[in-house]
Amino acid sequence: MWLYEHNYGLLRGLFPAFFSGEQDCWQGRIGHQELCLRVVERFRYTLTLDIHCRLRQHHPLLDDFVVSVRIYRDAGLAEVLDYQYLGRRQPVYPRRDPRDMRITEKRQLNRLFGDWLKVIDLGLRNTGQGVPVNA
């Protein structure tokens, strides 16, 4: 669970307006990336965000980074629900899935999301648009 807590801390530090209910959409440029965050669902204890990140210059080997994240505000967790429009992931697959899912696919996606948040944090600090996030 530390990974979900860590991602929650990073996300909350980077985009606090989503957590307070002040904002439902954010668009901006960070370095060579165009970033769009949109609230899909907002309930008392949960929040679901769609995040779309695109490189400004198209590269044939790099797709856009598209992810849906469920945020549990009462528990302080952020969990990846969907990645690249491939659908929801099971926590663990008993063996290799026919759709080529790895046994620990969900954990790997949440690690990737955490790494991506660190890159965004670094980009905001380097452009002077944000403050360092300590999570």
Structure write-up:
The protein is α+β, with helices and mostly antiparallel strands and 135 residues long. It has one domain (2-127). The protein is 30% helix and 30% strand. The protein has three helices and five strands; from the N terminus they run ααβββββα. The chain has helices spanning 2-14, 16-20, 105-127, and strands at 25-30, 33-42, 46-55, 65-72, 77-83. A five-stranded antiparallel sheet has the order 1-2-3-4-5.
Topology:
Blueprint: H1 2-14, H2 16-20, E1 25-30, E2 33-42, E3 46-55, E4 65-72, E5 77-83, H3 105-127
Antiparallel strand pairs: 1-2, 2-3, 3-4, 4-5
Question: Which tags fit this structure?
Answer:
single chain; disordered C terminus; alpha+beta; 135 residues; 30% helix; 3 helices
Uncertain runs: 131-135
Helix content: 25-40%
User: How many domains make up the 3D coordinates?
Assistant: 1
Number of helices: 3
Distance between the termini: 14 Å
What is the N-to-C succession of helices and strands? HHEEEEEH
- For the biggest β-sheet, the strand order reads 1-2-3-4-5
Largest sheet: 5 strands, antiparallel
Shape, principal axes of CA atoms: globular
Question: Quick summary of this structure?
Answer:
This protein has 135 residues and is α+β, with helices and mostly antiparallel strands. The chain is built from 3 helices and 5 strands. Helices cover 30% and strands 30% of the residues.
